[in-house]
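Long-time lurker. I teach an intro course on protein structure, and each term I like to show students one example going from raw sequence to a predicted 3D structure in token notation. This year I'd like something fresh instead of my usual example. Would anyone be willing to generate the tokens for the chain below so I can use it in lecture? Attribution to the forum is fine with me.
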Amino acid sequence: MKNTARLFENTSRTLAWAGCIPVLAMTVTLSLGGCKNKAADAEAQTLVAVEAEKPETGEISERIMADATLSPLSQAAISPKISAPVKTFYVQRGSKVKEGQLLAVLENRDLAAQALDTKGQFTSAQATYEMQTKSQVPEDAAKAELDVAQAQAQLKLQQEIVAARKKLFEEGAIPGRDYDTAVAALVQSQAAYDVAANHLNSVKKVNRTASLKSAEGQLSSAEGKYQAAAAQVSYSEIRSPISGVVTDRPLFPGETVTAGSPLITVMDTSALIAKVHLAQIVVQRLALGNEAQIMIPGVTDPVPAKVTLISPAVDPGSTTVEVWLRVDNAAGKYKAGTPVRVAIAGRSVPQAVKVPVAAVITAQDGGKSVMVVKADSTAHKVKVQTGITDGEDIQITQGLNGSETVVTNGAYALEEGTKVKIGKADEGDEKE
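-- Reply from a regular --
Happy to contribute to a lecture. Here you go:
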């Protein structure tokens, strides 16, 4: 009985394993089938749709792109030199003015009174100068000459008296006392003559010059005070130093303007200047008169412009060179202060290998590369060197010969050896 039971138990186990074999076979089959499907799905997912084309060969003209702000041809923020209330304004914002035109007048009655006072002092100094130069100085000289003549005549008379008395004294006709008296009188006459002669010489050489300089100094001082007072009056009249249009007038009549603060701003907007800063190596390819285009917000078509100034020095702060582009604005259509985008025409290359700008990938170290699709539909990175660009296409100077198929859209973050399909790249592929 025991042997029979053991036989029955072994038979049951054998049948149980035999029943599991089909189940295991089915499970393995299903697992292998699932792996094949996942591999197929993974292979399908690695195919990235990109746009690609062969590089073009032809002429390319450089377009140097930069941002700028439109500035007026000239500008004057007019500030008075005195602090005073505004008496009258003759212009408003938007008024067109001419050079030298009166724009406003400040209160100036006190200044006018001071100018009148100094004018009177100047007139008095002029009269004094006339009197000293035409009357007093000549009279002093004439008097000195007359004194010399009288002293000379008296000296001559005394000389004759001394000679006569000497002869009489020698003959014994007069006492020696009379002769001595005559000699003493001669000495006095000689001294008087010397004094008169020295005074005349002083009047001619010293007093006359000093008197004239003193008179001129008093006249110049009075004239300077008068001109200063007149200048103060003129400072109360605000005139435009340039022709243009009034763009700012912050105050109203009756308000006080302080010296040095802007009262009226005038801009010459008949032409506008777009000032751009470019690298020195780029500026070396430019010349005065080069054509350019300016893209202005709100204006459909690009506005033509020309290079009118290339700074002769490099900005030490940014190590760039400032370039001016002039835009005609006679109609006043464009506004100063508008941010714009400029494109300057540079050199041209007749036979250049060129690809779209979007096809070039720039690394963090500044290196350039493109993704090229090989015959097995895999993408590979090729390092290139670029030349000039016209804003849409860019010249490839090294790295391509023109026979490759270059990814033009969808190359961003595309890994080396990735399977691609040439078509329209969708946003998912580009992001991936």
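Some talking points for your students: The two ends are 74 Å apart (CA to CA). The chain has a mean pLDDT of 81.
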